[in-house]
TrEMBL record:
Pfam families named in the record: ABC2_membrane_4
Membrane-spanning residues: 48-72, 99-117, 137-163, 175-193, 213-239
Lineage top rank: taxon: Bacteria
Protein name: ABC transporter permease
Keyword Transmembrane: yes
UniProt KW keywords: Membrane, Transmembrane, Transmembrane helix
Lineage per the UniProt record: Bacteria, Bacillati, Bacillota, Bacilli, Bacillales
């Protein structure tokens, strides 16, 4: 499986979409971070910039999810996966290596902008006074972000293995993620959480909840279980579909 993972990484790092996304994340982190200063309230420092940029990362989550869906869809369209199976690799190894590489790489892309932005603004605002607590806070945010972002990416992985082509995978993924983002944007102001309480458990919504500086045990459990259940559910469905489908 190591060879499969190395091949996936090699193909991905030279892909123009991946290179473009990486550059876009860095450029956004450098130039857009200063615009978040006016929105800071409780933490006017680099930690506040980091939190604000993660809070506002929904658009990047939708974009990068679509790119991930496109690239996996291309693997079916270009018959790359078919050739891997013909070469003697088991489907479970192909599936695991692809998921691990894509989830790892696109989670890194999601974190580049907040990290670059906070480092850039640290020269102007500093890191605050409680550095030990802030390190634990950042680690917690990064951990929850990786889990919850992976849960969102897993939905696109599911569509990729359902449709097995780029066009339909990207189209359906974009529609589903855009509707989810709109639900989160209007759920609070419109009072939807009272009539549709399950909206609170959407991974996109839990990302914002996880940014609170202080979380209760119940909130931590809710965030963790929300991400884990979504991730395992869609990854399991994806593999079941891949394991039984006929490759063309």
């Amino acid at each position: 499986m190591n060879n499969l993972m190395q091949m996936e990484w090699y193909r991905l790092k030279y892909n123009k979409f991946f290179i473009g996304c990486s550059l876009l994340s860095i450029i956004y982190g450098v130039f857009a971070s200063k615009g978040y200063v006016a929105d800071l309230t409780t933490r006017v420092d680099a930690i506040g910039i980091f939190t604000a940029m993660v809070y506002d990362s929904t658009i990047w989550l939708v974009l990068f999810s679509a790119i991930a869906a496109l690239l996996i869809g291309q693997d079916f369209t270009n018959r790359t996966i078919h050739l891997e199976v013909v070469a003697g690799h088991s489907r479970i190894k192909i599936f695991i290596s692809k998921c691990l590489i894509y989830l790892a790489v696109f989670n890194i892309l999601m974190l580049i902008s907040p990290i670059v932005g906070s480092i850039r603004m640290s020269f102007l605002l500093g890191w605050g006074d409680s550095w030990n607590n802030d390190v634990l806070y950042i680690l917690r945010v990064v951990g929850f972000s990786v889990l919850l972002n992976s849960a969102v990416f897993s939905v696109c992985i599911f569509f990729a293995f359902i449709f097995r082509d780029s066009a339909r995978t990207v189209s359906v993924s974009m529609i589903v993620l855009f509707v989810s983002a709109m639900c989160i944007a209007y759920a609070g102001p419109m009072g939807w959480y009272d009539s549709l309480p399950w909206l609170r458990f959407l991974p996109m919504n839990q990302i914002r909840t996880s940014l609170a500086y202080s979380l209760s045990t119940a909130q931590v459990s809710e965030i963790f279980l929300s991400g884990l259940v979504y991730l395992l559910f869609f990854i399991s469905l994806s593999f079941q579909r891949f394991n039984t489908c006929e490759l063309r």
